[in-house]
Amino acid sequence: MESHGIARTARKPRTEAQLQADLAKIANLRALEDALLRASPRPADPADPATLALTTKLLRLNPEHYTAWNVRRRCLTCGSLSRPSPGPSPSAPPASSSAACTPPPSSAAASPSSSTAIPPGHASPPVPGSGKSGTTADAQLPPPPAVNDEKVVDTLKNELMFTIPLLLEFPKSYWIWKYRSWLLQQAIDILPKPIARRIWEEELGLVSKMLTKDRRNFHAWGYRRKVVATLESAALDGASLVEAEFAYTTKMINTDLSNFSAWHNRSNLIPRLLEERGADDAARQKFLEDELDLVREALNVGPEDQSLWFYHHFLVQNMTEPDGRPKIAPSLSSTEKASYVRREIEDIKDLLEDYDDITWIYKALLDYMRALPRVEGRELNEEETEELQTWMTKVRQLDPMRNGRWTDLEKECSLL
Question: How far apart are CA 76 and CA 372, in angstroms?
Fold first, then answer.
């Protein structure tokens, strides 16, 4: 059995040498954890390079260690990714660039001594030349220090590079993907828009390479949608990428017809695509026909592929079901809808001549034959009922684990 191109093999008992190596790795991991916990939650210097190096060692052993990721974030926000303070306001004390970087006040500083405390009910004496707030009228606040863009960019790129080997080894680790998202958000928060946008565009290119290596990684597909949405947003002065993303799904589908994530992404893009194209009724109907042709050709190649049937079902249901979702061709008449459904039923019947042992074919026929009379506003006729009974008998043989479902379906169609 294969999963994402990686063959699965039976696990063999570990040798004594392997066991000792694993025990040494566990001991090393626990030692690193203890060292990190001793440095947390508030080391003497939150941006201490030694603490950052400690998280590097720990995360290379265990990228699921969320405490290490959080400590790493704090090291960066107190160091090379720290933001300059906007300066004190006339009525507020100076604030640190990050709350996590501010050491707790000492007991001496936190409570006034008896010699310096002001008795209750007595106001402090005014300072000459000051206004109501105690600030000098003509005082000018110093401008905040400028952000070193090159330093921030270097830090972000180094951190993004740090996660790449981890992603290659652990492509479905939520914490790695979340950390990359956090890094990219820092680019928006700290850097000028043109520089931040360039970093996000590079990230989109990197995700494309990742999906070339692992085409069906749903983590990477979800991450790609987030990157694209941000590139389209006002935060990066973005514009629509729906055409490019739709073309990307076509490319990925042509590479691998079984890429469920690509088909799913395609179905989500279609409403926006047609709206932004300003497609009229004729263009929408042509688009629907092209999509049906695309998936029909794919089914002729791989009728056992579940992802193809899901997309085909999406297209047919988009025509037949009044579910409130955006329609590809909303102006189709009932007669036109019925014509499309009949054609799909006949094409699927043709598949039975060569593939009479594939459950998905019978499931599609059962769904579409039941949808046809609903579209035409009538009941099932005798011929349709007989065909449903024949297909139901066959699907029971191929999928006996769902006998309860088939019984309910027979009752719904009055076949019992």
Answer: 61
Higher per-residue confidence, 98 vs 190:
190
- Report whether 244 contacts 285 (CB < 8 A): no
- Return the pLDDT at 393: 92
* 273 band by pLDDT with thresholds 50, 70 and 90: very high
288: which DSSP letter?
H
What percent of the chain shows pLDDT beyond 90?
A: 62
Task: Name the DSSP letter for residue 136.
Answer: B
Distance CA 124, CA 115 (A): 14
Tokens in use for 400?
Answer: 């006996």
Asked whether the predicted pLDDT for residue 315 surpasses 60, the reply is yes
Bridge partners, 6 (sequence order): 3
Residue 311 contacts residue 267 (beta carbons within 8 Å): yes
Neighbours of 217 (CB within 10 A): 19
Tell me how far apart the alpha carbons of residues 300 and 298 are, in angstroms, rounded to a whole number.
5
Beta-bridge partners for 3: 6
What's at 343, amino acid-wise? R
Question: What Å distances lie between residue 43 and 47, 78, 363, CA to CA?
Answer: 9, 12, 62
Q: Would you list the DSSP string of 103-132?
A: PPPPHHHHS--TTTPPPTT-PPPPPTTB-T
Sequence-ordered alpha helix ranges (H) in 172-280: 174-190, 193-213, 218-232, 242-255, 260-277
Number of H helices, E strands in the chain: 16, 2
Mean pLDDT of the chain: 84
For the segment 191-238, what is each residue's pLDDT rounded down to a tens digit?
Answer: 999 999 999 999 999 999 989 888 888 899 999 999 999 999 999 999
Report the C-alpha gap between 330 and 318 in whole angstroms: 9
| pTM over 0.85, yes/no | no
As a whole number of Å, the end-to-end CA separation of the chain is 39
Which token pair is 123? 């106001």
Name the H helices within 40-120. 49-61, 66-77, 107-110
Query: What is the secondary structure of 372-383 as a DSSP string?
Result: HHHHHTS---HH
Q: Which of 80, 36, 40, 42 is nearest to 55 (CA)?
A: 36
Q: Which residues contact residue 397 at a Cβ distance below 8 angstroms, ignoring those fewer than 6 apart?
A: none
Bridge partners (DSSP) listed for residue 130: 136
Q: How far apart are CA 331 and CA 272, in angstroms?
A: 17
**pLDDT per residue as tens digits for the range 104-153:** 333 333 343 333 334 444 444 444 444 444 444 445 655 555 667 899 99
Residue entry with tokens 């090291």: 75
